[in-house]
Write a structure and sequence with these properties.
Layout: H1 5-32, H2 34-43, H3 48-62, H4 65-77, H5 83-96, H6 98-109, H7 117-127, H8 133-158, H9 180-197, H10 200-212, H11 218-239, H12 245-272, H13 275-286, H14 296-318, H15 322-332, H16 356-386, H17 390-421, H18 428-463, H19 470-494, H20 504-530, H21 535-561
Amino acid sequence: MEFGIYDVFKILGALAFFIYGMKMMSDGIQKAAGGSLKNILGTMTQNRFVGVVSGFLVTALVQSSSATTVMTVSFVNAGIIDLTQSAGVLLGANVGTTITAWLVTLLGFKVKISVLSLPLLAIAVPMLFAKKRKVKFYGEFIVGFAILFWGLDVLKHAVPDLKGNADALYFLQSYADGGFLSNVLFIGVGTLLTIIVQSSSAAMALTITLSMNGIIPFEVAAAMVLGENIGTTITAWLASIPANVHAKRAARIHSLFNIIGVVWMLILISWVIDLPVIIQWINTNILQSTLDITTPDGRGHGISIFHTSFNILNVLIMVWFVPWLVNTATKMVKSKGDIDEEFHLEHIGGGLLPSSELSLMEAKKEAQKFTDVASRMNGFVKTLVNETDKKAFDKMLKKVRKYEDITDRIEEEMAIYLTKIGQGSLTEDTSTKIRALHKMIANLERIGDIYYGMSISLENKKESKVWFTQGQRDNLNKYLDLLDKTFNQLKSNLESEFGQVNLDKAIELEHDNNKLQESLHQQHIIDLEKGEYDFKSAMHYRDLFMACEKVGDHLINVSESMQMKI
């Protein structure tokens, strides 16, 4: 019997089946328990040790260390936890992902769970059409569970058995002498395999399958497991390339942790310890199992023990070096600096898209930054009102134009991000929050346009050699100061949770805005009739204080969006 291209595609198809099932499982449980996951990670990161426990629990629940990493990065972006606290969660995620290997070993090969796949699908598929979203999400989880083990069963039969096909993948055995170079080679194989399938869990399932079918010995499987630990960090690294600075730093911490762990374990298994003897001792004396981990039937058990033991030991060692990991990652990924240097979205990026709830947290944080940008433009316009030096005036004019361009790009990129969030299955609450954020960014972008228009008016005034009286200038400064207060109140409101903001102060400031506009308008008519200033000056002056009133209207709209009355 020959092993051909068709057999290769059977294995790849089985892996794809497995990965799809795992993704469905992970997405379903995240949607169903999103709030709970948020609470676990948000409250259990008070120190690095508790963070390890929370990382383990969440990863064991969602069956995806990548999902936990993305959620953790989201909390860093949202300011709930800092990078040091996130490092503990990332370490715990590495231990949590070992649960997958045990599921594959104990259920995938010992229990004929694949025979339950069709009955499970019969139960779960109707749940996908339920009106209650939680029922639908749990249905997704069960469908993913059924597909995962169905794919694993297909994988078992797709991988050739050396007893019936001695030539298939036999070349692997010729390199499996267990020495240093052999270990390095198979670490590379495990790394490459994980990068190709984009899932350390799928790579682990294939490794266990190859080992239990007698294609690779235990030592080779162990080396491949180490490579899979590196491979999963490389995929996170690649995913973080287009993402923000926080995502990049989290990916570097993950990489440093795993690469350092693989290096010290490589040294131990190559020159210091007899790995099969150590694992067999753990299996016999700690787990009280009679399986021989060097035999095909026991290899899956042994690989799971090695995977878990390695990750636990690595966490116990590296948890003491978390400050060093954070400092090193921060040095590796420098911040782009002030927004004046280069525009970039700080809290959201294109690489890592977490669950809808966490994505909204990041988008809200970006809306807060958007408010800071618009607030700066208020200060720029105030400078233009009072500046008499031509060079300083022209420099500030360019700054206003640059910031108006920034507001346009922030709105565009945030709108794209919010649209991506809205493409999944959403609760009514999440849909309302998305609409609220769309309203926020539309109003903030319009504020940028208004300030740009005010700068053009001031430029035309200067070029036409039209001058304001001291009274006009004082009134405009008074209005811009009121807008500063309104911006500060808005920033405070944006710190609150959706639906829980107190708008009393914002409404009071909006009333002050309307009163000031009416007062200035009435006084403007009186002064114009008295000839206090000429018609050209009057036109520019009226345009500016009316523009200020419009800014105030947009600011109260942003605050009201926090109440989700869309």
